[in-house]
């Protein structure tokens, strides 16, 4: 799903993420906003100390459940081979 089609206003801020280079809060915010009134959020947290934060971030958006892939490949939902 293309962010531009779902939330054009947030999509227009993508240039900031590229300019900052470091992973800013926008990267987390765009994962957690429930644009489509979905029941579930499937996201990732590369650093273990962010798993609990990602679980909590879905609560105000009224997801029925939040699933967090942890210790996967940074920036994605894939698992590393050594974790499987």
Give a brief outline of the structure.
GO terms for molecular function: glycosyltransferase activity. The chain is 36% helix and 14% strand.
Largest sheet: 2 strands, parallel
What is the structural class?
Answer: alpha+beta
Backbone CA Rg: 13 Å
Number of domains: 1
> Spatial order of the strands in the main sheet?
1-2
User: How many individual helices?
Assistant: 5
In total, how many beta strands?
2
Distance between the termini: 27 Å
| Gross geometry | globular
For the residues shown, what is the average pLDDT? 77
Please give the share of residues in helix: 25-40%
- Sketch the topology as an H/E string, one letter per element: HHHHEHE
Poorly predicted spans: none
Keywords: Glycosyltransferase, Transferase
GO molecular function: glycosyltransferase activity
């Amino acid at each position: 799903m293309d962010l531009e089609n779902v939330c054009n206003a947030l999509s227009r801020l993508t240039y900031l993420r590229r300019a900052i280079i470091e992973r800013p809060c926008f990267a987390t915010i765009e994962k957690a906003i429930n644009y489509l009134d979905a029941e579930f959020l499937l996201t990732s947290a590369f650093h273990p100390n962010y798993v609990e934060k990602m679980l909590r971030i879905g609560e105000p958006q009224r997801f029925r459940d939040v699933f967090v892939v942890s210790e996967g490949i940074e920036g994605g939902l894939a698992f590393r081979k050594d974790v499987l």
